[in-house]
Amino acid sequence: MTKKTRNILFSIFVLAFAIIAPLVCLYAAGYQVGNNFSVQKTGILVIKTEPTAATIYLENKTQKNLVDNLLQTNKQSYTTPNRIKNLLPGKYDIKLEKEGYWAWEKQLQIDPGQSIYIENVNLFKNNLPTPLNNQQYSDLIPSPNGRMLLAIYQHGADIINLDDDTIKNISIATASVKTVFTKDNCLWSPNNDAIILGQYLYDLSNTEQTRNINELTDDNLTNIKWNLTDKNHISYTSQSSLYDFNLDSKEKKLIAKDISTNDYLARGNDLFFLGRENDSIMLNVWDLSKNQSVRKINLPNSDYTFINQDNNLINLLDKTHKALYLIDPFAELKPIVEIINNVNSARWINSDKLIYANDYELWIYDAKNYYKVLLTRISEQITAVFPFTNENYLFYATENNINIMEMDSRDKYNIIKLVDLEKIKDPYLSKNGDALYFYSKIGSNEGVYKLVIQ
């Protein structure tokens, strides 16, 4: 090699180094050369999913690690969880895909020097529902611990164990042919070990000890309810009077006479019931330990029912005017915390956030900051709404489908129609969030179905 050739090669290497070195330094510092050779500060995309190993697409292209792939013969695509660096500023169509799951899509803006986080993403299995049985039921009632379903029909009931999907028939129900079972007279005990079935008390641990509550009290009982925190106490109405009854001692206690209410709530030492006074309805707060009234809260004259009974606030739904009253019965100055209008159904995500629906709209209410947000409006009537184990998601159902909605409002609320059938009733999410149970009709098969989603 001549000296001239060596000088030329040396000059080429020096020039290449002078060009490449600054670019490498810029890349390492988070800069790239953009349009018109302008130097731009790049952004970072941080993605985590449950389950993991979802393939990441940006602008419909799989993302690959440049350095790793230069060293590998089998080039790998980016999968979750991952951190993608050195993205030029702009809008990106982002898609996450995993075989057997519904895809996740969103368009997000990445600004210079900004880190965008997609960390609370659940991917849901794309499955078909499977039947558990072929029995017609009128209602499905979940147990307080979320591990069982009480499936009732006119003169009978079954218990569906959600841990293993086994079904047990309740024999007392079939013997009680004169009792019509409904969701109003069939109730789980607070500790999940007993059920009120009409006038019968059914013990899951000892089915031989099924008792007729009418015979225990010598009263003509109606509207029987458990105390939500004391399994040994029930309440009931008889001849327009409200009673508390101790199942162990067989002692009954008169709470109020001449009441004109069809609903009440017993929780610990407190009993809340509605009574009519002149042209108003009074929410009565009764101390069971002292057997005396603590407070009365004036409400407009209407037809009310207690919902979300495990929430700290009293949730009273005005069925006539579709208004939800959130009440702190022990607040000194303002017991009525909020009145939410146009409500058909409502469920709490946590102690601060409430999701609620009217016929065609889905809303969220922030009880901590006192504001409401419209999540979506659809053309079908909403029949149920309930939260997912990940609070970033919620379910809503219509007569024909069940949908899951992501509440990340960036770009759009992602909505997936998980199942679309001829008939859907009483959807329920298992305790760990891995499956949906519901009553449905598929062809000629009508009964309880299971849809695995996780």
Description:
It is a single chain. By secondary structure, the chain is mainly beta. It has a domain at 42-122: Immunoglobulin-like, CATH 2.60.40. It contains 4 helices and 41 strands. The strands form 11 sheets. The protein has a 4-stranded antiparallel sheet with strand order 5-4-7-8, with no helix packed on it. A hairpin with a 5-residue loop joins strand 35 and strand 36 (393-397). It is elongated, with a radius of gyration of 30 Å.
Radius of gyration: 30 Å
Given helix and strand content, the structural type is mainly beta
State the helical fraction. Answer: under 10%
Low-confidence parts: 66-75
CATH C-level class of the domain at 42-122: Mainly Beta
Classify the fold: give the CATH topology of the domain at 42-122: Immunoglobulin-like
| Count of beta strands | 41
Task: Give a short synopsis of this structure.
The chain is 9% helix and 49% strand. The chain is mainly beta and 454 residues long.
Could you name the key traits of this structure?
single chain; 454 residues; mainly beta; Immunoglobulin-like; 4-stranded antiparallel beta sheet; 4 helices; 41 strands; elongated
Detail the topology: elements first, then pairings.
Layout: H1 3-28, E1 31-33, E2 39-41, E3 43-50, E4 55-58, E5 61-62, H2 66-70, E6 82-87, E7 90-97, E8 104-110, E9 115-122, E10 130-131, E11 139-142, E12 148-153, E13 156-161, E14 166-169, H3 171-175, E15 186-188, E16 194-197, E17 200-203, E18 211-212, H4 213-217, E19 222-227, E20 230-238, E21 241-246, E22 252-256, E23 264-267, E24 270-277, E25 280-287, E26 292-299, E27 304-307, E28 314-318, E29 323-327, E30 336-341, E31 345-348, E32 353-357, E33 361-366, E34 371-377, E35 384-387, E36 393-397, E37 401-406, E38 415-420, E39 423-429, E40 435-442, E41 445-452
Parallel strand pairs: 3-9
Antiparallel strand pairs: 1-2, 3-6, 4-5, 4-7, 7-8, 10-41, 11-12, 12-13, 13-14, 15-16, 16-17, 17-18, 19-20, 20-21, 21-22, 23-24, 24-25, 25-26, 27-28, 28-29, 29-30, 31-32, 32-33, 33-34, 35-36, 36-37, 37-38, 39-40, 40-41
